[in-house]
Design brief:
Elements (H helix, E strand, L loop, with lengths): L15 E14 L2 E7 L4 E7 L5 H8 L6 E10 L5 E2 L3 E4 L2 E6 L14 H6 L1 H4 L3 H23 L3 E2 L5 E2 L11 E3 L5 E4 L4 H11 L1 E9 L12 E10 L3 H22 L1 H6 L4 H5 L7 E3 H14 L3 H7 L9 H8 L6 E4 L12 E2 L2 E5 L1 E6 L4 E8 L4 H10 L8 H5 L8 E7 H9 L20
Parallel strand pairs: 3-6, 8-12, 14-15
Antiparallel strand pairs: 1-2, 1-4, 2-3, 3-5, 4-6, 4-7, 9-11, 10-11, 12-13, 13-20, 15-18, 16-17, 18-19, 19-20
Bound molecules: 4-amino-1,4-dioxobutan-2-aminium adenosine-5'-monophosphate (4AD) and magnesium ion.
Length: 446
C-alpha cells in the first residue's frame, strides 16, 4: 500500500496507490460515482464503478456527504479531462474505507458565501479550494523568504513580542499590564532588537507575528500580521534596495516553480509574476509628488479629485500608491520620503534634514506598499535628538541609544508584510484571506 501525495500523482501513473483525504465534491452517474478528494496537497478525482465494489459499499458512496474522511486504494490513470489540482489524473476506486461519514449539515457548501459568513466559518472555509490555494502560496512565500535569507548569510533572530515601548508610533499600540513592571506592549516591529543583533551577527532577520492596533479598516490592514524584517550592518539605502529586489525576485520565482497549479486555480495571470525581474525602477518621493500633484491638478471628476488630493509632505494614501504603480509593470521603489511622515529612527538625507533615507516598495497592479525600510540613524546625538523631538520615553530607549556608542556603523533594514506579498502573488483583493485566521478591528473569532 503506497500512500501518495496528490501533488505528486503524475509520478504514479499505472500504479496502484492509496489516497487519504476528504470528499470535497461528489457526482453520481448511475453505475459511476465521481468523488473529488482533497488530501492537503491537492485535489484528485476518484472514480467508483459499481461493478468493482460491494453493493453495500457502493450504496454508501452514492450518499456520502461532503467532507467525509476516506482512504481510497486503486490505480492511477492519466486523463486530460480529470478535474483536480494539479488535475489530469484520476484514481479508480478498488477499495474505500470511510473513516468518518460527515454530518450532512456541513455549513460551507460549495456555493458562494457572504464575506461575514465565510469569516465566521473560517475554521471550515480554509478547506475550500480557493482558500487552500492562497494559504499554500503563503507557506511557499514564507519558505522562499527564509531560503533566500539563509542562503545569503543572514541569521534568524527571534525578537520579543512583549516590549517596553512604541517603535512605529504610539497610536497603534496594544498594551497589557505587565506584573510590577507597569505596561508592556505587543511588538509593532522587531527592528530595534535586530539593530542590536547586527552588531553581533552582521546580517540578521526576524520573522514573526506583529501587532498594530490600526483603526484603519482597509483591505490591506490586519491587527495581527506576519512581518519579515532583515537588518544589515554596513549597508546603505542603495544596498538595501538591491537586497529587497533580489529577495522579492526569489520569492516570485519559487512561487512560480512550486505553486503553479494553485495560482492557475485562482485564475492568476502568471505573466504578472514572471515580470518581477530585477532591477526594479527607483523613483524619488520628490518626483512621485510632482507626478501626483500633476495628476491631481488635471483630474476633472470631482470625486476622483478628492481622493487624489496631494501636496509635497503628505504620506501616500492607497489611491496615490495605486496611481504610482500604474507607471510600471514591475514593483517600484519610492525613496526619500519626508521625515515627518516616517519613523524616528530613519537617517536624514545628507544636506536635506526634512527628507529621510527611507524606501517603500510598491507592488504593481494597485497593490501598493509591500515593504517599508530605511537606513537608520547611526549617530548617537542625532538619534537622541529625534527621540526627544518625538516625545518618546528616553529611559525605554537607553539600550537602543547605546548601540550608537560602541562601534556604530551605517546600517539598514526593511519589513515585508507576508500577507500583502501573498495577496499580490495570488492576485486577490483582500489580505484577510492571506492568513489562516485573520485578526481585524472587528474580528477575533474564530
Ligand atoms: O512600514 P512598516 O510599518 O515598517 C516597519 O515596521 C519597520 N520597522 C520595518 C523595518 O524597517 N524593519 O511595516 C512594514 C511592512 C509594510 O510595508 C506592510 O507590508 C506590512 O509591514 N504592514 C502590514 N501588513 C498588514 N497589516 C498591517 N496593519 C500592516 N502594517 C504594516
Ligand atoms: Mg510603511
Amino acid at each position: 500500500m503506497t500512500i501518495i501525495r496528490v501533488d505528486k500523482i503524475s509520478e504514479y501513473e499505472g500504479q496502484e496507490v492509496t489516497v487519504q483525504g476528504w470528499v470535497y465534491n461528489r457526482t453520481d452517474k448511475g453505475k459511476l460515482v465521481f468523488l473529488l478528494v482533497r488530501d492537503g496537497t491537492g485535489f484528485v478525482q476518484c472514480v467508483a464503478f459499481k461493478g468493482d465494489l460491494d453493493e453495500a459499499v457502493f450504496d454508501q458512496l452514492v450518499r456520502l456527504p461532503q467532507e467525509s474522511s476516506v482512504i481510497i486504494t486503486g490505480p492511477v490513470r492519466a486523463d486530460k479531462r480529470a478535474p483536480g489540482i494539479p488535475g489530469g489524473y484520476e484514481v479508480g476506486v478498488k477499495k474505500i474505507e470511510i473513516v468518518q461519514a460527515a454530518d450532512v449539515d456541513y455549513p460551507m457548501s460549495l456555493k458562494d458565501h457572504g464575506a461575514d459568513f465565510a469569516l465566521d466559518n473560517r475554521h471550515l472555509w480554509i478547506r475550500m479550494q480557493s482558500q487552500w490555494a492562497i494559504l499554500r502560496v503563503r507557506a511557499t512565500v514564507m519558505a522562499a523568504t527564509r531560503e533566500w535569507l539563509d542562503n545569503n548569510g543572514y541569521a534568524e533572530m527571534s525578537t520579543p513580542i512583549l516590549t517596553p515601548a512604541a517603535a512605529e508610533g504610539t497610536t497603534t499600540l496594544f498594551e497589557t499590564e505587565y506584573f510590577d513592571e507597569g505596561k508592556a506592549y505587543l511588538a509593532q516591529t522587531g527592528q530595534l532588537y535586530n539593530e542590536a543583533n547586527i552588531f553581533s551577527f552582521g546580517k540578521v532577520y526576524c520573522f514573526g507575528p506583529t501587532f498594530r492596533a490600526e483603526k484603519s479598516k482597509t483591505r490591506r490592514h490586519l491587527t495581527e500580521f506576519w512581518m519579515l524584517e532583515p537588518e544589515i550592518a554596513f549597508c546603505d539605502l542603495d544596498g538595501l534596495m538591491e537586497v529587497e529586489e533580489q529577495m522579492i525576485h526569489h520569492i516570485a520565482q519559487r512561487v512560480l516553480r512550486d505553486r503553479k497549479p494553485e495560482l492557475l486555480s485562482l485564475g492568476r495571470d502568471l505573466a504578472k509574476l514572471e515580470s518581477i525581474q530585477p532591477p526594479f525602477p527607483r523613483m524619488s518621493y520628490d518626483d512621485a509628488a510632482k507626478y501626483l500633484i500633476d495628476l491631481y491638478e488635471k483630474e476633472t471628476d470631482p470625486e476622483k479629485k478628492e481622493l487624489l488630493k496631494f501636496e509635497w509632505g503628505m504620506d501616500f494614501g492607497a489611491p496615490h500608491e495605486a496611481e504610482l504603480t500604474k507607471l510600471n509593470e514591475k514593483p517600484l521603489f519610492v525613496y526619500g520620503y519626508p521625515s515627518a511622515v516616517k519613523a524616528f529612527y530613519m537617517e536624514p538625507w545628507p544636506g536635506r534634514p526634512e527628507v529621510c533615507k527611507s524606501v517603500d516598495l510598491l507592488a504593481p497592479e494597485g497593490y501598493g506598499e509591500v515593504c517599508g525600510g530605511s537606513e537608520r540613524v547611526s549617530d548617537h546625538d542625532a538619534l537622541l535628538a529625534r527621540i526627544q523631538k518625538e516625545g518618546l520615553p528616553e529611559a525605554a530607549f537607553k539600550w537602543y541609544l547605546e548601540l550608537r556608542k560602541f562601534g556604530s556603523v551605517p546600517h539598514s533594514g526593511f519589513g515585508m508584510g507576508t500577507e500583502r506579498v501573498t495577496a499580490w502573488m495570488c492576485g486577490i483583493e483582500h489580505i484577510r484571506e492571506a492568513i489562516p485566521f485573520p485578526r481585524t478591528i472587528k474580528r477575533v473569532y474564530p
